[in-house]
Amino acid sequence: MLGQLNIYGKDKVEVAIELLRMFEPPEGYYLAFSGGKDSICIYYLAKMAGVSFTAHYNHTTVDPPELVRFVRSFPDVQINYPEKTMWQLIIENKVPPTRLMRYCCSALKERGGQGRIVVTGVRWAESANRRSKRHAVEFDVYGSKSKEANKRREIFLLSDNDEKRRMIENCQVQGKHIINPIINWTDAEVWEFIRTNNLPYCRLYDEGFKRLGCIGCPQKGKKGMLRDFVRWPKYKDAYLRTFERMLKSRNRDNTEWKTAEEVFNWWVNGA
């Protein structure tokens, strides 16, 4: 039995499997697979549930090489490449992505699944501001005329993890219906499920990485970004080269930044 019982008095694995079986569409699910520990859980839960699905990994072009190799070990996971790389997006937007300006997420990570029922590994426990005020299962309130419902009409990224995420969602902006079967699982429960079932996982976790994702992602904070660049120094060099090209595209005389190093320091120190 996995961790604590949920609100239905059933084991969380059982509930997740029942949920996947209940909403299985005729064409099968679109399973958003990132290669992280949460993706491993939803991938194998879908296998255990016996539901039809296609797993999709959106390559961001700045993913850790170890993570990409791990994803490639799953022959049934389709790897999708973006129309534009991270380097092209930075030059095009004339500024690096920041915690508040996350243009890269929608362009690189949130592609695919339009018109499909998407299964994600979003969990409340991944949010620093999580609360337990929301129900484990809530149905769509988009389009409701109530004031309370209208307050909840927000645009979100599929990778966002906070107390506003639900087990069953409808994203009208992206044309997707979303199932989050492990939304109420804790970190300990995720690892218990992986180890109890002897499931594979990316070796970066054994090196101390708590969360995997784009190298240099501002969401990791200064400490996390610097750790990334120590671990993968060639990516720091790639960012610096890109910042230099970005400055040329901006016309260096019309910006407070004069060098790529100045951009990098501004970016890492809390942009």
Task: Give a brief description.
With 271 residues, this protein is of the alpha/beta class.
What would your notes on this structure say?
This protein has 271 residues and is an alpha/beta fold. The chain has 2 domains: 12-196, HUPs (Rossmann fold); 215-268, no CATH class. It is 37% helix and 9% strand. The chain contains 10 helices and 6 strands, in the order αβαβαβααβαββαααα. It has helices spanning 12-22, 37-49, 65-72, 86-93, 103-109, 147-151, 187-196, 221-231, 233-250, 260-268, and strands spanning 29-32, 53-58, 77-80, 117-119, 168-171, 176-179. The chain has a 6-stranded mixed beta sheet, covered by helices on one side. α1 (12-22) packs across α2 (37-49), α4 runs parallel beside α9 (233-250) and α9 packs across α10 (260-268). Mean pLDDT is 84; it is low at 128-159.
Secondary structure blueprint with pairings:
Blueprint: H1 12-22, E1 29-32, H2 37-49, E2 53-58, H3 65-72, E3 77-80, H4 86-93, H5 103-109, E4 117-119, H6 147-151, E5 168-171, E6 176-179, H7 187-196, H8 221-231, H9 233-250, H10 260-268
Parallel strand pairs: 1-2, 1-4, 2-3, 4-6
Antiparallel strand pairs: 5-6
Helix pairs in contact: 1-2, 2-7, 4-9, 8-9, 9-10
- Secondary-structure element pattern, one letter each: HEHEHEHHEHEEHHHH
- Relative helix content: 25-40%
Chain oligomer state? single chain
In the CATH hierarchy, the third-tier topology of the largest domain is known as Rossmann fold
CATH architecture descriptor name of the largest domain = 3-Layer(aba) Sandwich
The helix/strand class is alpha/beta
Uncertain ranges: 128-159
